[in-house]
Amino acid sequence: MEFATVFFLIISLILSLRCLLKFLTSSGHRKLPLPPGSMGWPYIGETFQLYSQNPNVFFASKVRKYGSILKTHILGCPCVMISSPEAVKHVLVTRAHLFKPTFPASKERMLGKQAIFFHQGDYHAKLRRMVLRAFMPESIKNIVSDIESIAVGCLESWDGQLVNTFQEMKTYAFNVALLSIWGKDGVLYREELKRCYYILEKGYNSMPINLPGTLFRKSMKARKDLVQILAKILSTRRNMKDNHTDLLGSFMGDKEGLTDEQIVDNVVGVIFAARDTTASVLTWIVKYLAENPSVLQLVTEEQEAIRRGKCGEEKVLTWADTKNMPITLRVIQETLRIASILSFTFREAVEDVKFEGYLIPKGWKVLPLFRNIHHSPDNFPEPDKFDPSRFEVSPKPNTFLPFGNGTHSCPGNELAKLEILVVYGGPTQWNSVWPLRSSPEWFAHQALPQIEDRNPRHRSVMQTAYAIYIIMFQTQ
């Protein structure tokens, strides 16, 4: 009896000490100050400032005034912005379990709740393994010639025409995405898939009002049509006995046990992730090569040397060729740095977090500012200068993050680099004979959907209206 009493008292003491420690720790956290910064207008915060100016200006001015960790309020949410390589690694890698990925609810409905972007833990890890397996060099090296065929087809269709580069690059990236997902099996459905997806994507930033005639309703209907097409492709693939190394083959592996809903949501998610970002990089490369003829000449000479070494059947681009393009690769790297397509990413604190002497309250968003890191003179001298030669030496650790970092970094980065190398590893002469028709100021960082009206006053009104909409509907 005495032993039982002593044992009970010891357990009670341990539990009491744990509760006291937790209380003291929590109280200590709550006494910590919030990071310095400005929260802007009530509820609206500083969203207008973010979306009405060059993001370089907005982020840089904040960091100059408040330092590398600061608070603000954008898109209806209180946020902490971080801009040092060490802090970004802390959030995305070292203590990633304390910061979960977060997206607008409307995005989740459009892409599908089972998509990889919206998950953590075992399910996310399993999906990531499957995507990496399909997009690792050993898998994608066999589709180089197919990607080249897509690139050549696109370039030939532009001959003698005035084209919208970004839109055409989106078509190219879309076709490569389909190829990487299910090889040539989806060729019969390509145009139908494209039609459905293009309607779907228009609803990514629409008001989530499911009424007849609304953009949201049309987009959700297009998604249903897309699901039906994907179901046909899944059915066809199941009737085949061949082994496939593409993404669909990875998703459908017997050992993985994914449901059709999970497969479809992740296929839609991969198309979303693979298209616009890659198309943006391709478009910025056009701009920078046109503005830097000496760099274009170096790229052209490199590609001509590769072509001179081929004859007959060997004229087709190979995986080995793409590994022999150091100058072209550095152009891609410098474009990824200076354009910083992924300006920042969103995380959400899952509990109160003590960080560099400040408190990040549970539920607050945390924004690692990749753009600031890429444009810091401490990391890249003369950061506003387009200079691919800077990548002749590897950047300092955690200073070059075009694909993010940690377990949620882009698993398709090797495919993205490959399709860019292929399109510029072919007839690069088109860059020198196809002059740009847009003046440099029209190459803008598109934080918002593209707005066609070129009247500055009208454009400002539309941007303001759109920012209000984002605050009201996209953060719910």
Automatic annotation (TrEMBL):
<dbReference type="GO" id="GO:0010295">
    <property type="term" value="F:(+)-abscisic acid 8'-hydroxylase activity"/>
</dbReference>
<dbReference type="InterPro" id="IPR002401">
    <property type="entry name" value="Cyt_P450_E_grp-I"/>
</dbReference>
<dbReference type="Pfam" id="PF00067">
    <property type="entry name" value="p450"/>
</dbReference>
<dbReference type="InterPro" id="IPR036396">
    <property type="entry name" value="Cyt_P450_sf"/>
</dbReference>
<dbReference type="GO" id="GO:0005506">
    <property type="term" value="F:iron ion binding"/>
</dbReference>
<dbReference type="InterPro" id="IPR017972">
    <property type="entry name" value="Cyt_P450_CS"/>
</dbReference>
<keyword id="KW-0503">Monooxygenase</keyword>
<dbReference type="InterPro" id="IPR001128">
    <property type="entry name" value="Cyt_P450"/>
</dbReference>
<keyword id="KW-0472">Membrane</keyword>
<keyword id="KW-1133">Transmembrane helix</keyword>
<comment type="pathway">
    <text>Plant hormone degradation; abscisic acid degradation.</text>
</comment>
<feature type="binding site" description="axial binding residue">
    <location>
        <position position="410"/>
    </location>
    <ligand>
        <name>heme</name>
    </ligand>
</feature>
<comment type="similarity">
    <text>Belongs to the cytochrome P450 family.</text>
</comment>
<dbReference type="GO" id="GO:0020037">
    <property type="term" value="F:heme binding"/>
</dbReference>
<dbReference type="GO" id="GO:0009737">
    <property type="term" value="P:response to abscisic acid"/>
</dbReference>
<dbReference type="GO" id="GO:0016020">
    <property type="term" value="C:membrane"/>
</dbReference>
<keyword id="KW-0479">Metal-binding</keyword>
<protein>
    <recommendedName>
        <fullName>(+)-abscisic acid 8'-hydroxylase</fullName>
        <ecNumber>1.14.14.137</ecNumber>
    </recommendedName>
</protein>
<dbReference type="GO" id="GO:0016125">
    <property type="term" value="P:sterol metabolic process"/>
</dbReference>
<dbReference type="GO" id="GO:0046345">
    <property type="term" value="P:abscisic acid catabolic process"/>
</dbReference>
<keyword id="KW-0408">Iron</keyword>
<keyword id="KW-0349">Heme</keyword>
<dbReference type="GO" id="GO:0009414">
    <property type="term" value="P:response to water deprivation"/>
</dbReference>
<keyword id="KW-0812">Transmembrane</keyword>
<keyword id="KW-0560">Oxidoreductase</keyword>
